[in-house]
Design a protein that fits this description.
alpha/beta; 39% helix; Rossmann fold; 359 residues; single chain; 2 domains; globular; 7-stranded mixed β-sheet
Length: 359
């Protein structure tokens, strides 16, 4: 096999996009002549992130059903017809050996059309509770790569392959800590809390941190705080640490973090496990079927992480974090336990599954 012709579809959040790019990178590394094209939803973040990673992406006019009564729901049948027709054209144009669906709006019409035209489908499910698109496509899939055990509750057990979630390989590279502290303008002699709210930000966490800044002793501790675009606050370096809208060099941020406060998205959990970081998870309560809580619960039950309910962050989050930061033995225990959940070779395992489908 000299090359693979591949269509990868899905997106909407970093939790879908970054695994998709990691799969593409694994294919390109082994088969440099491969033809890889992405399909996303117009107006969603994949239309920006995928080209930045060096890949071509086509956009479908597609979105989800609004949960409230909304006039935009009237457009859904027209969007679906448009996306199916566009998908038909793309499949006929690129003639892929296989398609990969990572979840998200665009994955539905593209993979439905591709499988209807005889193209084999591999699904990649990041969460412990599957998204709607993957549940709808499960009957058409040849293989379903999952990140959690016991997924036979949702999918045909014969199709399941436990691979873990692909993560950004640059995060696994060795980092010069001194350079990382200098990059952010932080003090290497202080313990550091990294606060990340996911690719779209976390309003409740941001509000709780801002309210509790005076609890931080600037002589002992500091925070590196990624707020996301939705939180209007001044960026810069302060007595208590640094606040920024987006962290470009996440490998630097993880390298200096003694403790991480994070949403419990599947990709975040996979990265934090691979990097063996001590974590307090704050699951997003509005996530479908409360899947972020389910994502984090197995780690918490194994003593590999702490959890703080979103409804309790205002009172409990920062005191819990500062208390943990003062216990080096507990931090070390958390790092050891969470490393047991790491699957750093997930992208290569998914590539092997792709190869088996094609062969």
């Amino acid at each position: 096999m000299k090359k693979i012709k591949l269509l990868i579809s899905g997106g909407g959040t970093g939790g879908h996009i970054f695994p998709a790019v990691a799969i593409a990178n694994a294919v390109k590394e082994k088969y440099p002549e491969s033809e890889i094209t992405f399909v996303g939803a117009k107006g969603r973040m994949e239309m920006e992130k995928v080209p930045a990673a060096g890949y071509v992406i086509h956009g479908l006019w597609i979105s989800g059903l609004q949960r409230s009564m909304d006039w935009r729901n009237l457009l859904l049948p027209f969007k679906l017809i448009s996306s199916l027709w566009r998908s038909f054209i793309l499949v006929r144009k690129y003639k892929p050996d296989v398609t990969v669906g990572v979840g998200g709006y665009a994955s539905g019409p593209l993979n439905f059309m591709a499988s209807s035209l005889g193209v084999p489908l591999l699904l990649q499910e990041q969460n412990s509770f599957p998204g709607l698109t993957n549940k709808l496509l499960k009957g058409k899939a040849k293989r379903i790569c999952v990140a959690y055990p016991n997924m036979e509750r949702f999918f045909d057990e014969k199709k399941l392959v436990l691979t873990g979630n692909p993560i950004r390989q640059d995060l696994l590279k060795e980092v010069d800590q001194a350079k990382a502290y200098q990059h952010f303008g932080l003090d290497p002699n202080k313990r550091t809390i990294l606060i990340i709210g996911g690719s779209l930000g976390a309003r409740s966490v941001n509000q709780a941190i801002e309210k509790a800044l005076d609890l931080i002793d600037p002589n002992l501790s500091q925070i590196l705080w990624q707020t996301g675009k939705s939180f209007q606050a001044k960026e810069g370096v302060f007595e208590w640490g640094k606040r920024t809208i987006f962290i470009q060099r996440m490998e630097y941020a993880y390298a200096i973090a003694d403790l991480v406060i994070s949403r419990a998205g599947a990709l975040s959990i996979s990265e934090l496990s691979a990097l063996a970081k001590a974590v307090i998870f704050v699951p997003l309560p509005s996530a479908a079927e409360d899947h972020q809580t389910k994502n984090a619960q197995s780690l918490v039950e194994s003593g590999a992480a702490y959890i703080c309910a979103d409804s309790e962050v205002s009172e409990k989050l920062m005191p819990m974090a500062l208390d943990l930061l003062s216990q080096p033995n507990e931090l070390a225990k958390l790092k050891k336990e969470i490393s047991a959940f790491a699957r750093p070779n997930a992208a290569q395992e998914i590539l092997h599954t792709l190869e088996s489908i094609i062969e």
